[in-house]
Specification:
69% of the residues lie in helices and 0% in strands. By secondary structure, the chain is mainly α.
């Protein structure tokens, strides 16, 4: 299979090809899906190493179910998001009791431009605010507004209805606004 040919195939088709022994299909799926899963896991866990572990475990599980995958049902990406959310949730539950606010952010010794510093501050503020949300609200907000999934996709990934997704994202956005209120100047936003 050529690279342009594989790029045009759906995730379903690529997973089917992988199950039939086409290793290049797996490479295309990893290139397509792993960055999204890593971003999701990093946002949920606030730890890059753990997020990488979750991403690897989720992909491993995808490869394990590939021979039994039924095309036309849930999308592999939706299934993978659900697995990643579950794996991240399990890790978060195991580490409860650790005060993450007491852990200092590592300093970056590399000189950076002002814009990069402002972007980093904004990202950190958002990550801290996300970490303060209840778990299900955080998952819904990250999947919707940072990963760009639709409400039905989020519902499938979380195992809930679309109305529940809408409620969780709305409450999560309101809470984020409260948590970030009064920080516009500090984060470099003009009034």
């Amino acid at each position: 299979m050529t690279a342009p040919e594989s790029e045009s195939l759906s995730d379903d088709a690529l997973l089917g090809r992988y199950a039939a022994g086409d290793a290049s299909a797996a490479r295309v799926l990893v290139d397509r899906l792993a960055p999204r899963i890593l971003r999701l896991a990093t946002r949920l866990l606030q730890d890059r190493a753990e997020a990488e572990d979750v991403t690897q475990e989720a992909l491993l599980r995808l490869w394990q179910i590939a021979p039994r995958w039924e095309a036309g049902g849930a999308q592999p990406s939706t299934w993978l998001h659900r697995v990643a959310v579950n794996l991240a949730t399990d890790r978060l539950r195991r580490r409860r009791g650790v005060d993450f606010d007491s852990i200092d952010e590592p300093d970056d010794p590399a000189p950076a431009a002002v814009e990069t510093m402002i972007d980093d501050d904004r990202r950190r503020a958002l990550d801290q605010a996300l970490a303060a949300l209840p778990e299900r609200q955080r998952v819904a907000v990250v999947l919707r507004h940072l990963e760009g999934l639709t409400n039905p996709e989020i519902g499938a990934a979380m195992g809930i209805g679309v109305e529940a997704v809408e409620s969780l994202t709305a409450r999560g956005k309101r809470r984020l606004a409260q948590l970030l209120e009064g920080r516009r100047d500090e984060l470099g936003y003009d009034r």
